[in-house]
Amino acid sequence: MTPSSNPVPPEVIHRVQELREQLHYHNYRYYILDAPTVSDAEFDRLLRELERLEEQYPELVTPDSPTQRVGAPPLDKFATVPHRQQMLSLEDAFSETEALEFDARLKRFLRAEGDFDYVVEPKMDGCAVELVYERGRFTVGSTRGDGIRGENVTQNLKTMHTIPLQILEREEPAPELLEVRGEVYMDLDEFKKLNDERLAQDEPAFANPRNAAAGSLRQLDPKITGARPLKIYCYGVGEVQGRKFSSHWQTLQALRAWGFRVNPLIAQARGIDAAIAYHHRIEHQRRGLPYEIDGVVIKVDSLALQERLGTKARSPRWALAYKFAPTQETTRVMDIVVNVGRTGAITPMAVMEPVEVGGVTVSRATLHNEDEVARKDVRVGDTVLVQRAGDVIPEVVQVILEKRPPDARPFEMPKICPVCNTELVRPPGEKVTRCPNPDCLGAQVRSIFHFAGKAAMDIDGLGEKIILQLVENGLIRDVGDLYRLTEDDLTPLERFAEKSAQNIVAAIQNSKTPPFWRLLNALGIRFVGEATAQLLAQHFHNLEALMQASKEDLLHVEGVGEQVAASIQEFFDSPRNQELVKKLRDAGVKEQPPAARAAGPLAGKTFVFTGGLDRFSREEAKALVTARGGKVSSSVSAKTDYVVAGADPGSKYAKARELGVTILSEAEFEEMVR
Ligand code: IVH
Description:
It contains 25 helices and 23 strands.
């Protein structure tokens, strides 16, 4: 970095310090406490101001400045760093008996009686890291490695907003040296999203959130890590100089006060019975948690006792990982069948010997598509590892090849639809095989089911089984027919009591005035999901306006690109769909126009994009802006607030510089909209 020629004025030094302090604090309020006290725009303004000052006076840049979270160049490989204190692992227990034995063992070892005070914590299923703070500043971060040495992933950890770059000193000063240990993880919904994106881009999916977290953390390019939604929960310390703790609980409270993210579910438990009760309670809550845990950790609270107990070869005597029933299990594939989705998409499914996975019996798992079956090479007769992650549909993780019988049968995608016998198609370049028959019973049932869904017409009680019954009995062919159903149509059918017939007919009739976006989503236009439906609804207000829109009109809607526009036009060009809309109208379906847009965090801000973006398509980037109340324009003027410059930006970049418009990198833009 070349220092600027002029000496730095004292007021600039002061302002830079002030800005950093404020930014560190607002980062803490936002990412650690989840309780911001300033708007995103205000935060952004402070960050921009700091950036400008640092640009002007590069000698003021420090590695722990809030501007330094992104931007480090990629590495060739990771260096290794020794841990001052070994990073141990934990002894596992899988039953109450084993937990009781652990407690009894401690009592014998210490020749003690009476209950121990324990601290009990969720056992996060991610990737262990150590964060070193010297005089309050984050200096080195590493993975656990072999426990003695880990990989230096400092630049990657710095991109994570849940990791403080500076220790917060509002409650107590930072110690001379502090090594914080914690688990980097990924929330389940983010994991799922990441995998969907990877599959769409022909990249292999991560087997579970743990692999996704570890893989993201071990990227040589910090920009990639920065784009992955990683978080951390801190659960302990390594070496500490300049501060003494007497208990583990006290340590965790101090970490919290210093601005580290500590799991809110941690608790104190007096005696092993209370710790076991905690295990049961958390196991119960587990399915509702946004992240994966694989058990609870029971730790002796007193550090004096911890010291007396000491460690064995690889794990401390004073702690126990009391695991839950696993969410991965092995079982045998008895058959591979295919499902017909609402768009006619054919999805291969493994039919398996029923097995309990994380407390739920599983007998079917999705295999996604033909290429995925081939990539995993799943055959009928194979023994496979299946997993459930949260509420996600169970999936086959991998084949246990050693157990493959000689007569294992490879899967072949059927040539004809198993429901309607129509020849299936798989257009070149697409992954999905489809049944092209619009009258296919399978697709009909699925599309009616989609129409009735919560984010669509929200018809309570209209499940797949009932729909199949209605279709099979010739009572409905498409969603338009639903509104003609009467109680008398339903009561003769099997399983239909008078009351339930009444309820369903009422639910159908009550669904006639949905918000426009839900009606749009209900129609099941390809590429028009909930988010796009909302953008379209904001723009067109009613169905007729959308149906009459030209391609140019459609492309004017932020978030709508060529593919979406073409799909919308194709949908409404089809006489069949026009007929369907007419049928819905005749039945009295009338959508509600959207309310005026609430002011979002980017309200009143105009963005211009130039150059290639890595992490978003242009459409996505535009949609992110408009969804937050901002506007996107195609040319730079004095009215432009931000120019987002991707790779090889064009003349708009020069224009922005000329006009003094704030220029954002893609990463900065991402931070702003996330
Ligand atoms: S304490 C000496 N607490 O589990 C104690 N570990 O098998 C060391 N883990 O490598 C760890 N949540 O990555 C501790 N609340 C928690 C934890 C936790 C997850 C992981 C950690 C460690 C592994 C030990």
